[in-house]
Amino acid sequence: KQWYQRRVRGHIYNDPELFSLEDLCSVKDRSMMESLRPIVTSWLQHVDNCGLCRGKGFICELCARKEVIYPFQLTTVFQCQMCWTCFHQSCFSGTCPKCARIQSRRTLSQEVDPAPQEILSN
Length: 122
Known about the structure:
mainly alpha, two-stranded antiparallel ribbon, 8% strand
């Protein structure tokens, strides 16, 4: 077993939506947070240092800083619920530029070729 699996009760690691009464009590008295802190810190360090994990991150296209951002950065990152692209919350103005581009391309392709389905159905 990994060291973090030994520090956390198995059901929390294997089924994170399942909580026991003991788990809820440890959340209330903050002891669960203290036991999970080193695990989360280790995972965050891994993500920062692993090329595969960094490759699954995002670059905010609104500010184009070189910083890789991730959807799990809940306090600083906004993730579009339509296309799943991530932006810094401070950069996001309410309209997702990727969704706008997708919609613009759809509109343009419908104007250029308004009835591709009719050709296919004949």
